[in-house]
Amino acid sequence: ARDLAVGNRDQQLAAIAALKKSGLLAIPIARDFLESDDSLVRETAVDTILTLGGAQTVSIVIPYLKEERDTNVIHVAMRRFRDIGGTTVRDAISGYVTLEDEDLVVAAVESLTKICGKASSSPFGTDGAKAPATSEINASVARLLDDPRWRVRAAALEYVASIKDSSVGDQVILLLDDEDEFVRAQAISAAVALQLTSAKDRLTKLFLSDDDMIAPATTALTGMEIVLPPDLVAHLDTRPPDVVVGAIKALNRDTKPFLEV
Q1: How far apart are CA 176 and CA 152, in angstroms?
Q2: Rounded to an integer, what distance in angstroms lies between the CA atom of residue 76 and that of residue 88?
Q3: Structure confidence at residue 254 (pLDDT)
């Protein structure tokens, strides 16, 4: 208690963090530090409150975040929010999708992917409460597919794939030719998730023009139950052994043979 009241900065931070071991009764104490002039103190208070109360304390933190200007404080809250989930958290996070700060936009989209995605991202059942995607959120994220920043485009593609938003299929196909390799790989994953068989021509182009894209393109084509045509098989026969091995490993063997070896 002394460190909280009159301790120096380090003592105060340690004391706030230690409240995580004190149970729900410590939440009002940590709440008093949400208006501190020190951003690191606010950051620690937010983390402590959400750790202690989870979904019960979301309504306490959100009003403060609306006035918060320090991105580190917001990032801490968002990391906790994505594990808590639920519609209140979804709606709060969606407001960050339209900001200019790249890190916040990416973090917001990644959080929405986890909260709104149709498939659980954890095999151990540790995800927070799921919340359905809304048309407004989908539209906001769809606009990010044209964003000049590659990290934003990649995050938007992951969201689209997770919620299976087929309305943006044409944009996903265009991004198969993106200048950034990681974005192209994410577009391939999205094309498979959305079963965009109309992407065959662009996937074929990737296969023939870029050795690094042969394995991902193979996964995409066979994942949509498209048999590798003779020209792709012939091209694969001219590639280095490691590329051939990668393509064979990438074959989708769950349904039927796609390549005569």
Answers
A1: 15
A2: 17
A3: 53
The string of DSSP codes covering the chain is: -HHHHH--HHHHHHHHHHGGGS-GGGHHHHHGGGG-S-HHHHHHHHHHHHHHHGGGGHHHHHHHHTT---HHHHHHHHHHHHHHBSHHHHHHHHTTTTSS-HHHHHHHHHHHHHHH-SS-S-TTS---B-----HHHHHHHHHGGG-SSHHHHHHHHHHHHHHT-GGGHHHHHHGGG-SSHHHHHHHHHHHHHTT-GGGHHHHHHHHHH-GGGHHHHHHHHHHTTPPPPHHHHHHHTTS-HHHHHHHHHH---SSS-----
Separation CA 197–CA 194 (nearest Å): 9
pLDDT (0 to 100) of residue 15 = 87
Instruction: Identify the pLDDT of residue 120.
Output: 44
Please give the C-alpha separations between residue 140 and each of 144, 152, 153, 172, 217, in angstroms, as whole numbers.
7, 12, 12, 15, 28
- pTM of the prediction? 0.81
Q: Residues of the chain whose pLDDT is less than 70?
A: 1-3, 5-7, 119-128, 252-261
Amino acid at site 1: A
Q: Is the dihedral of CA 230, 235, 241, 247 positive or negative?
A: negative
178, 184 Cβ separation under 8 angstroms: yes
The pLDDT value recorded for residue 62 is 94
- How many Cα atoms are found within 13 Å in the side-chain-facing hemisphere of 59? 2
